[in-house]
Amino acid sequence: MKKIDWYIIKKFLGTFFFTIALIIIIVIIFDVSEKIDDFITNEAPFSEIVFHYYLTFIPFFTNMFSPLITFIAVVFFTSKMAYNTEIVAILSSGVSFKRLLLPYIIAASFIAMMSFYLANFLIPNTNKIKMAFEDKYIYQTYYNTSRDIHVQNKTGEYLFVESFNDQTLTGYGFTWEKFDGQNLIYKVHARNITYDTATFKWTIHHYTSREIIDGKHYFKKGVEFDTTLNVVPRDYSDRVARMDIMDYFDLNDFIENEKIKGSEKIKFYLVEKYRRVSFPIATIILTLIGAALSSRKMRGGIGLHLAIGITLSFSYIIFMQVSTVFATFGTLSPFVAVWIPNIIFSFIALYLLKLAHK
After folding, report:
1. pLDDT for 152-184, tens place per residue?
2. Sequence ranges of the domains in the chain
3. d(CA 294, CA 280)
């Protein structure tokens, strides 16, 4: 590492964190103006507003805007260096353009690793604090009635409810079927079921059951009985589970359980899993594109560099959103959908770097 490397790294990281800080301050100001009435009405303590709510904004927005802000930071300070002929002086001293990119890659890798840590470990924990604050002082209890939901309890066992109420944790029109291969061996139909949050058991009300043993059918009718099922209330909700409060290991375990249950929402969870890895990598790719674009003088000055940079950044974001929609609601693989933007923009980066080197 030479002085010029530290010089570029300091400019890179300094511009990045300064820009992130400005954006976070602006977001907080707008959010305060929007939610001040809720804070006053619900008598939220000032210390909780600061430490349980707004402090959690810092890692969340740092990670959300990191690729975009990284790109803008690179374009901004590199353009200034180019128009001050600093880059010409560096290259004239015998430093190759590839060697010039080393401090860019080091700084971008630092931001990428920070983004990976924030997305997979820190933000899920801060989101739990933020969510508890919002439930207490901002939002009312969420009410939802889901309809016609099929869930696999475990291999060979299937559960069905005609409707489910999130508020009362009650399912109506419940059916539980067990199969031995293709043969039905047990079936329960009940008027409703309720979940006990204290015992983590389900109570099945007003049921009739049929058990088939050696070709004979045994019927039973009762008022209620308790049982343990491999499902929880959120499995009967039409909402996607709160992935933003699951860390890397929790999310992986959750996805494996959802695969066993045959969840229809599995694609949403896989997209989130792959995005937590691909998003930090985008930081490095956009850094290389930014360095290649802004390392030369162009007519239009820094403004033109920024315009091109912002256009490419938003193109990446739009591309990511479109591809993930095809994955979650179409037949495209979640892995492919998440990584396609990175692959395409990697080729764009290589092309621009080749031109810049000339």
Report:
1. 888 889 999 988 887 788 889 999 999 988 889
2. 3-139+266-357, 145-238
3. 22
